[in-house]
Amino acid sequence: MIRVALPYHLRNLAQISGEVELEIIGDVTQRAALDALEARYPMLRGTLRDHTTTLRRPFIRFYACEEDLSNASPDDLLPAAVANGEEPLLVVGAIAGG
Questions:
Q1: What is the pTM of this model?
Q2: Which of 31, 63, 83, 89 is the most exposed place for a label (fewest CB within 10 A)?
Q3: Residues 1 and 40: beta-carbon distance below 8 Å
Q4: What is the pLDDT along the chain (98 residues), one digit of tens a residue?
Q5: How far apart are CA 57 and CA 95, in angstroms?
Protein backbone atom coordinates (compact mmCIF):
# COMPACT_ATOMS: atom_id res chain seq x y z
CA MET A 1 0.00 0.00 0.00
CA ILE A 2 1.44 3.36 -0.97
CA ARG A 3 0.25 6.82 0.06
CA VAL A 4 -0.26 9.74 -2.30
CA ALA A 5 -0.77 13.32 -1.11
CA LEU A 6 -2.58 15.54 -3.60
CA PRO A 7 -2.97 19.32 -3.62
CA TYR A 8 -6.30 20.74 -2.48
CA HIS A 9 -7.72 21.44 -5.96
CA LEU A 10 -7.15 17.83 -7.08
CA ARG A 11 -8.54 16.40 -3.82
CA ASN A 12 -11.57 18.62 -4.36
CA LEU A 13 -11.96 17.40 -7.96
CA ALA A 14 -11.73 13.76 -6.84
CA GLN A 15 -13.99 14.46 -3.85
CA ILE A 16 -11.55 13.04 -1.31
CA SER A 17 -9.97 14.35 1.84
CA GLY A 18 -6.50 13.59 3.07
CA GLU A 19 -4.05 11.17 1.55
CA VAL A 20 -4.98 8.41 -0.87
CA GLU A 21 -3.85 4.85 -0.22
CA LEU A 22 -3.27 2.71 -3.29
CA GLU A 23 -2.48 -0.96 -3.79
CA ILE A 24 0.20 -1.51 -6.43
CA ILE A 25 1.00 -4.97 -7.73
CA GLY A 26 4.57 -5.34 -8.98
CA ASP A 27 7.20 -2.64 -9.15
CA VAL A 28 6.32 0.59 -7.38
CA THR A 29 7.14 3.21 -9.99
CA GLN A 30 5.83 6.69 -10.64
CA ARG A 31 3.94 5.34 -13.66
CA ALA A 32 2.37 2.51 -11.61
CA ALA A 33 1.33 4.95 -8.88
CA LEU A 34 -0.24 7.40 -11.34
CA ASP A 35 -1.93 4.59 -13.28
CA ALA A 36 -3.46 3.29 -10.03
CA LEU A 37 -4.49 6.80 -8.97
CA GLU A 38 -6.19 7.53 -12.32
CA ALA A 39 -7.88 4.11 -12.36
CA ARG A 40 -9.38 4.74 -8.92
CA TYR A 41 -10.21 8.40 -9.60
CA PRO A 42 -10.91 8.71 -13.36
CA MET A 43 -11.75 12.39 -12.99
CA LEU A 44 -8.02 12.99 -12.42
CA ARG A 45 -7.07 11.68 -15.89
CA GLY A 46 -5.36 14.44 -17.80
CA THR A 47 -4.74 16.60 -14.73
CA LEU A 48 -1.36 15.11 -13.80
CA ARG A 49 -0.24 13.74 -17.17
CA ASP A 50 -1.02 14.57 -20.77
CA HIS A 51 -3.72 12.28 -22.23
CA THR A 52 -1.73 11.41 -25.34
CA THR A 53 1.93 11.38 -24.29
CA THR A 54 1.35 10.49 -20.60
CA LEU A 55 4.13 12.98 -19.78
CA ARG A 56 3.89 15.03 -16.58
CA ARG A 57 2.01 18.30 -16.98
CA PRO A 58 4.36 21.33 -16.78
CA PHE A 59 2.93 22.77 -13.55
CA ILE A 60 2.76 19.47 -11.67
CA ARG A 61 5.72 18.27 -9.60
CA PHE A 62 6.36 14.94 -7.84
CA TYR A 63 8.35 14.65 -4.61
CA ALA A 64 9.28 11.75 -2.36
CA CYS A 65 11.60 11.57 0.63
CA GLU A 66 12.63 15.23 0.17
CA GLU A 67 13.67 14.51 -3.42
CA ASP A 68 12.26 16.07 -6.61
CA LEU A 69 11.23 13.19 -8.87
CA SER A 70 9.51 15.38 -11.46
CA ASN A 71 12.12 14.82 -14.16
CA ALA A 72 12.93 11.22 -13.25
CA SER A 73 11.89 8.46 -15.60
CA PRO A 74 8.30 7.35 -14.86
CA ASP A 75 9.60 3.78 -14.82
CA ASP A 76 12.25 4.34 -12.12
CA LEU A 77 11.44 2.67 -8.82
CA LEU A 78 10.11 5.00 -6.14
CA PRO A 79 12.14 5.19 -2.90
CA ALA A 80 11.67 2.25 -0.53
CA ALA A 81 10.04 4.48 2.10
CA VAL A 82 7.30 5.33 -0.42
CA ALA A 83 6.97 1.76 -1.68
CA ASN A 84 6.34 0.44 1.84
CA GLY A 85 3.99 3.27 2.86
CA GLU A 86 6.26 5.04 5.37
CA GLU A 87 6.39 8.23 3.28
CA PRO A 88 3.86 9.60 0.77
CA LEU A 89 4.40 10.43 -2.87
CA LEU A 90 3.71 14.16 -2.93
CA VAL A 91 1.96 15.72 -5.92
CA VAL A 92 2.48 19.48 -5.88
CA GLY A 93 0.97 22.12 -8.13
CA ALA A 94 3.76 24.54 -9.10
CA ILE A 95 3.12 28.27 -8.92
CA ALA A 96 4.39 30.68 -11.53
CA GLY A 97 3.95 34.32 -12.17
CA GLY A 98 5.78 37.53 -12.25
A1: 0.91
A2: 31
A3: no
A4: 999 999 999 999 999 999 999 999 999 999 999 999 999 999 999 999 998 998 999 899 999 999 999 999 999 999 999 999 999 999 998 777 66
A5: 13
